[in-house]
Design brief:
Elements: H1 2-30, H2 37-44, H3 47-78, E1 79-80, H4 84-90, H5 99-110, H6 115-124, H7 138-163, H8 167-175, H9 180-191, H10 193-209, H11 212-216, H12 222-231, H13 236-262, E2 280-281, H14 284-315, H15 317-322, H16 325-357, H17 360-369, H18 377-396, H19 405-408, H20 412-435, H21 440-448, H22 453-464, H23 466-482, H24 485-490, H25 498-507, H26 511-535
Parallel strand pairs: 1-2
Helix pairs in contact: 1-16, 1-17, 1-18, 3-7, 3-10, 3-14, 5-7, 5-14, 7-10, 8-9, 10-13, 12-13, 13-18, 14-26, 16-20, 16-23, 18-20, 20-23, 23-26, 25-26
């Protein structure tokens, strides 16, 4: 009976991982399919421009998010100054502003006769202010939009590492005559390297996956190339061929990050053991500098886009009346609730299956399945459509059954499935981190007391994992609220969310109309972030 029960968990976990891996494998297999002449034309025209722009964007965003994320995390973690307790959680509110909404705000504020012009006119009267107002568009505006939206990835992980660094290692550096800068560069920063690299990797993946902001600023990247190949040319093979190149690039990035972390040692042994870090209280100009750095960053990353959207909402109240906010809210919450529930259930089962079976093939398949988050949503959406179309043509119709494409394409079911593939890694890894804190001896003790694997799972593991589950639910909810390309491609006809409504208005050059859904999205996302910061990201050592 033991083996029978063991096999149930194993095969269930195997089936879950296989389902998640299918769209990923579809992208790889599609490279070998015949495509139209459009791909050959693209290679001779814009393909290298796509690659160059993607790399330029990636380098610019990584550099800026490193400065903003590590700098703010260091100041908040190591120093005490007025507002420090506020900024430690306020700086993560940038998560509430997706890059495409930040792009709308940035462009509108500095545009000819935009918000900046209006402010200057009210302050100083009529004048030719446009020639003095900088323009943030194209690649530069895109880098700023993505960086201010995503730097919090680096901030959160770097801050977590800084908080748990031992004071003993810092004192050792001081005893060796290190200056504050050398102590930071030689001791503090290397110890935080895994966390910072992990944060930058998430930033890199999100940057390569970004669609809304890239499309808005008309910067040709591999992501926009994939979308246009499907929309403009109606050629799935063409889109999948471009997807393959972007996917290879992402996997190289993914493997490089993992290898760099495995080859290094990041902890420092000290005779004194771990000693709680002491924050340095700042005074005078140093205190003012620390406050202003955090305040300016908070203002630029969160207050700026929030104010711009609020300004438009107040200035053009007719947009508020024309919008079906209740329907958009219900649609958004419906997707969030359904997707989160399914992800949590299956990630729990898969984690427990991996824990009790310990099969090598399952571990390999699980590793492949959790790579979905590294793949841009536009790739997964098109890969899903490709697989459903192939399966419908070669399996369903061959057996004489009715077509199933309408069941999965342009439906809530299809949308939830692609969400599942995209965000499965967040659920799986979030629960896995909780499982790593449960000693295997707990399971063995449970079995000795007569508990079955099922009873151990429900009565012991799930109660212990409640904080991890709460964190995962909030994280997934936040991602789904912000998600644009998957929803845009797979959603049913006339089924809109705050994200798609904002994008459609902006794509039609109706930025004022995009303000209301953007503002609603920011407010809802902020609620989830504040909830997370209060219950999950609180400092356990303070």
């Amino acid at each position: 009976m033991l083996n029978g029960k063991l096999n149930i968990w194993y095969f269930t976990s195997f089936a879950i991982s296989l389902v998640v891996a299918i769209p990923i494998l579809t992208v790889f297999s599609s490279f070998f399919q015949d495509t139209s002449n459009y791909f050959e034309i693209l290679k001779q025209t814009f393909f290298f421009e796509y690659i160059f722009n993607s790399l330029t964007l990636l380098i610019g965003v990584i550099f800026l998010t490193f400065i903003l994320g590590v700098g703010s995390a260091y100041i908040v973690s190591f120093y005490q100054f007025p507002g420090a307790n506020f900024f430690k959680w306020a700086l993560i509110l940038s998560f509430a502003v997706p890059p495409y909404i930040y792009a709308y705000s940035l462009f509108a504020f500095f545009d000819n006769y935009g918000t900046a012009f209006t402010i200057l006119k009210h302050l100083f009267g009529d004048g030719n202010y446009n020639k003095h107002i900088p323009k943030f568009d194209g690649m530069f505006g895109l880098i700023l939009s993505i960086s201010f939206s995503l730097y919090a990835y680096v901030y959160i992980l770097a801050r977590s590492s800084f908080l748990y660094q031992s004071q003993s290692s810092i004192e050792l550096g001081k005893n060796l005559g290190f200056s504050k800068f050398k102590c930071f560069y030689s001791i503090i920063l290397p110890a935080a390297r895994p966390a910072i690299v992990a944060g930058l990797s998430l930033v890199a993946m999100e940057t390569l996956a970004e669609f809304g902001a890239v499309e808005f600023f008309s910067v040709n990247t591999l992501t926009t190339g994939i979308y246009n190949a499907w929309i403009a040319f109606d050629d799935l093979a063409f889109a999948n061929r471009i997807s393959f190149f972007l996917l290879i690039f992402i996997f190289i990035l993914f493997l490089t990050e993992n290898l760099s972390r495995k080859k290094a040692k990041y902890h420092l042994e000290t005779k004194g053991g771990f000693k709680k870090k002491e924050k340095i209280k700042l005074f005078g100009s140093k205190s003012f500098f620390a406050f202003m750095f955090c305040f300016i960053l908070f203002s630029l990353s969160f207050l700026f886009p929030l104010s711009q959207m609020l300004y438009w909402t107040i200035k053009f109240p007719e947009n508020l009346n024309d919008l079906q906010i209740t329907d958009l809210l219900l649609n958004t919450l419906y997707l969030v609730s359904l997707s989160s529930l399914i992800l949590i259930i299956f990630a729990l089962i898969s984690n427990y299956g991996n824990r009790v079976s310990n099969k090598k093939i399952l571990n390999i398949l699980s590793t492949l399945s959790i790579s979905g988050y590294a793949i841009p949503g536009v790739i997964l959406a098109i890969a899903f459509i490709t697989f459903v179309a192939w399966f419908d043509e070669n399996m369903i119709k061959a057996l004489g059954f009715l077509s199933i494409k309408k069941i999965f394409i342009g439906s809530i079911l299809g949308l939830v499935i692609v969400y599942f593939v995209r965000f499965y890694s967040l659920a799986f890894n979030g629960i896995k981190s909780g499982y790593e804190k449960i000693n295997i001896a707990v399971d063995e003790s449970s079995y000795l007391l007569g508990y079955s694997k099922r009873k151990t799972f429900f009565n012991i593991h799930i109660p212990y994992l409640r904080n991890s589950l709460l964190f995962v639910i909030i994280l997934i909810s936040l991602e789904i609220i912000r998600e644009l390309p998957i929803t845009l491609i797979i959603r049913p006809f006339n089924f809109e969310t705050f994200a798609t409504t904002a994008y459609i208005s902006a794509s039609e050059d109706l930025l004022e109309a995009a303000a209301v859904p953007s503002l609603c999205l920011i407010i809802i996302a902020s609620f989830f972030i504040l909830f997370t910061s209060k219950y999950i990201l609180r400092d356990t050592n303070e």
